[in-house]
Amino acid sequence: MRTTLALMVITGIAGVPCAAGPPPARLPFEQPVRHDGQRVVRVRVETPAERELAEALSAEAWDCGGPRGGWGRYRVLPEGMDALEASGLEFVVEIADLQARADAERAEIDALGLGERALGAADLAWFNAYKTYAEYSAYTDALVSSHPGVVSRLALGNSLQGNPIWALRIASPGSATDKPAVFLFALQHAREWVTGMAVMYLAQRLAEGLESDERIGAALATHQFYIVPVMNPDGYLYTWSNNRFWRKNRRPNAGGTVGVDLNRNWSEGWGLDSGSSASPGSATYRGTAAFSEPETRALRDFVSARPWIRAQVDVHSYTQLILSPWGYTGATIAHAPLYDNLNATFEAGMEGPYGFDYLSGPTFTTIYPASGVSADWAAARGMLGWGIECRDLGQTGFELPAAQIVPQGQELLSGILNLAEALDDALRVFAIDAAAAVTAGAAATRTVFAYDSLSTLVATSPRQMARLGRLGEGEATALAPLAPNRYQATYPAAPCGATLYVRFEADAADGRTVRDPDVPANGWYTVPLRRADGTPCTVCPTDFGQDGIIDPDDLGDYITLYFQADAQTEYNHDGTLNPDDLGDYITDYFSFACTPG
Ligand code: 0X9
Ligand code: ZN
Predict the structure, then answer these.
(1) CB-based contacts of 361, cutoff 8 Å, min separation 6
(2) Which of 169, 488, 513, 516 is the most exposed, fewest CB within 10 Å of its CB?
């Protein structure tokens, strides 16, 4: 059965009675790329076969099957429509003529004229139209001069073609350099124009609202913000000069194609064929090596030099999503409960101002496998990481009408304020890889992060608790300071056959003991042990007597303790003692062949 629907969304474009300003110069040696008669089509792709077929029939996949009912978006050439019709795939035309859209968008921008576009003042009128790279730069300077001591401009490096990449720093006057920071960046993908505008709006409102807006004042009391509006200047310039729908940077690849997808060029999970492409012509080409591109290197080095950055938000468009790690694997991240909370808070913030629907969840399962993405890199380094997708749901796609720039900015501001408040609440002590396997018989080190935006942490208090076996409170060892909010933990050497448990704690000034909020219900991480050759030590999970030997006495001990309702005897680790737990224990006990290592 085949359903074909044509959906045309007419967006009102208000004419603005001003003299036309000159469009940015086009590179003389490159022809503009036109998209006459090309459509953006939403195709139902629920199986890999359907996805492959849709990709084969289209010029470019714009996404690969989203969360809202298994639909993917594809750019289709005029001559491809017949084959799509004949394919049996269910589809909806979302944009009937891409070139007409691009022309209308440019006419609207040109109609505003220089007078309005070249606004130097750090004024909200700037957000009435999309701005060029040069205009972003001028507005950044205007914000710096109108908010001295609050806004500053930091150089991160240059793009491949030598265009500067810069950040705005927004901080209350006199803030320490290493105050906890939230880092946002936009236009990693060149055609996602609203993203740069949205983060500039955020910067403007934070700077303006420091004194006058209570929530903004509170966010800036505990955090500073770094904001990179144009991460991919070469690609962005190219979307103005030659091809409105360019995504990647402008790297000349071997074989004559151009561009690396910068959001496949970060190191975490880099190189996986699921979630990125090795083909230089692909829209998701990952480059020749992780961080092969100067743009990703510039951001990496900026963040690495600032260990006080605790959250990183990479802003994209479109489809209204808040995407947390992981992107490269379907495995659940350590701290998933923390992410669930923060995702919900972020999402509620984005939805607040206009009631638009945003969805949140891990990247891999919410949209698609994406490897070498920025959020995974951040998460693997102890930061919280997100990639978010702005408006809309496909009606206008990358060419969100300029009238929605301010609403989008308001949504982002609302989301980020929610997030900053949630970060304030969370004095947390954790290691990303707390439960990763270690070699038996050898000590192992871990980096522990202690986040403390309200400065209630007793600086010398972060400590590791470790024990071999399930009983007891374990032994406390102070953690060695490494950098602001970073410490080093050393796990004790544990022999094969033992079970190593760890957890981290710190004291707050008010006397509370703070732990990692996401440790398993019994309060300890179990650290798997492996032999020097990499094979796992066989651990007997049912060895209740903790002597490394399973024997019937252990079962007796277990049953005795179980009926004394000692929390230590709770077998399922779900926090509840119930008869099923005992049943599971007995079943496992008699079915598990175990030789202690
Ligand atoms: O595929 C991407 O890179 C992003 N979608 S987009 O349509 N804007 O290209 C989503 C990736 C999620 N981003 C991060 N996890 N950083
Ligand atoms: Zn993107």
Answers:
(1) 67, 322, 323, 324, 343
(2) 513
Q: Give the other-Cβ count within 10 Å of 499's Cβ.
A: 21
Residues of the chain with pLDDT under 70: 1-29, 64-65, 113-122, 425-427, 452-455, 470-471, 517-523, 538-597
Active-site residue numbers?
A: 389
314 CA distance to ligand 2 middle (Å): 9
Structure tokens, 452: 């403390």
Residue 544 pLDDT: 54
Give the contacts of 538 (CB within 8 A, at least 6 positions apart): 496, 497, 594, 595, 596, 597
Query: What are the b/e assignments for 66-99, b being 16+ CB within 10 Å?
Result: bbeeebbbbbbbeebbeebeebebbbbbbbbbbe
The span from the CA of 323 to the CA of 228, in Å, is: 19
Predicted pLDDT of residue 259:
97
By DSSP bridging, strand 438-439 and strand 529-530 are parallel
Judge if the beta carbon of residue 51 lies within 6 A of ligand 1: no
DSSP 289-326: STT-SHHHHHHHHHHHT-TTEEEEEEEEESS-EEEES-
pLDDT given for residue 17 in this prediction: 25
pLDDT at 141: 95
Q: How many CB atoms lie within 10 A of CB 333?
A: 18
Ligand 1 close to Cβ of residue 314 (< 6 A): yes
Three-state SS at 190: coil
CB 477 within 8 A of CB 464: yes
Question: What's the pTM value of the predicted model, to 2 decimals?
Answer: 0.79
Centroid of ligand 1 to alpha carbon of 363 (angstroms): 8
Kindly provide the b/e burial profile for residues 572-585, where b requires at least 16 CB atoms within 10 angstroms of the residue's own CB. eeeeebeeebbeeb
Tens digits of residue pLDDT in 77-121: 999 999 999 999 999 999 999 999 999 999 888 887 655 555 555
How far CA 498 is from CA of 474, 530, 531, 540, in Å, comes to 14, 11, 12, 9
C-alpha to C-alpha distance for 330 and 371, rounded to whole angstroms: 11
Residue 348: per-residue pLDDT: 97
C-alpha Rg value of the chain to the nearest Å: 27
C-alpha span between 100 and 40 (Å, rounded): 12
- Ligand 1 pocket test: which of 60, 71, 189 has the largest number of ligand atoms within 8 Å of its C-beta? 189
Residue with tokens 């600086």: 459
Rounded to whole angstroms, the Cα distance separating 413 from 411 reads 5
Alpha helices in 230-361 (DSSP H): 233-241, 294-304, 336-351
CA of 573 to the centre of ligand 2 (A): 40
